Amino acid sequence: MNSLIIFFSYTGRTHYEAKRLWERVGGALYEIWEQKHRSRLSAYLFGPGQARRRAVPVIEPVAVSLDEYDKIYILCPIWGGWPAPAFNAIVRELTPGADVELIFTSDSGRMKDINAVAKRVELQGVRVTGAKVVKTENLMKRERRHFKKSRKTKREAKNG
């Protein structure tokens, strides 16, 4: 199966999760960028309101042809209980008939209405095969613990 993992990440946590998914399923990995860079203040202050209103920011042109893939995974952070605005721009790029899996990342693990978001995506003529929220805070902590252990082991081996 030819898979595409397309994602938007502001803090790097969604990027981390996209890489973990890519290691499991393979395929192509593609990051979406907004044309207008958001400051941290703008992202945290205005981002949740834009996400709630389903604003569609201008993104950099997508350099991959989405109709070449059998399965498309879309990863996006949750801002204020809703997918970040870049998600709406990604959804507009989808080609009808595609199989899409939605993965949302959040420190809190909470989302307002994941079923409503999935139904809205299906209005683009695609089939949503799954939708879930991944709690990224635990993933990052677990990875840091693993990284510290591996560094400690390397130091012990070096000194040993």
Tell me about this structure.
The chain has 160 residues and is an alpha/beta fold. The protein has a single domain (3-159), classed as Rossmann fold, CATH 3.40.50. The chain is 42% helix and 23% strand. The chain contains six helices and six strands, in the order βαβααββαβαβα. Strands 1, 2, 3, 4, 5 and 6 form a six-stranded mixed β-sheet that branches. Strand 1 (3-7), helix 1 (13-25) and strand 2 (28-31) form a beta-alpha-beta unit.
Task: Put the structure in a nutshell.
The protein is α/β, with parallel strands linked by helices. Helix content is 42%, strand content 23%.
Order of helices and strands: EHEHHEEHEHEH
Query: Would you state the CATH class?
Result: Alpha Beta
Rg (CA only): 17 Å
| CATH architectural label | 3-Layer(aba) Sandwich
Report the structural category.
alpha/beta
Largest sheet: 6 strands, mixed
Distance between the termini: 47 Å
Number of helices: 6
- Shape call: globular
Helical content band? 40-55%
Strand content: 15-25%
Secondary structure: number of strands: 6
In total, the number of domains comes to 1
Mean pLDDT value: 85
Q: Which homologous superfamily in CATH is the superfamily?
A: Flavodoxin domain
- Unreliable stretches covering 5 or more consecutive residues: none
The name of the CATH topology is Rossmann fold
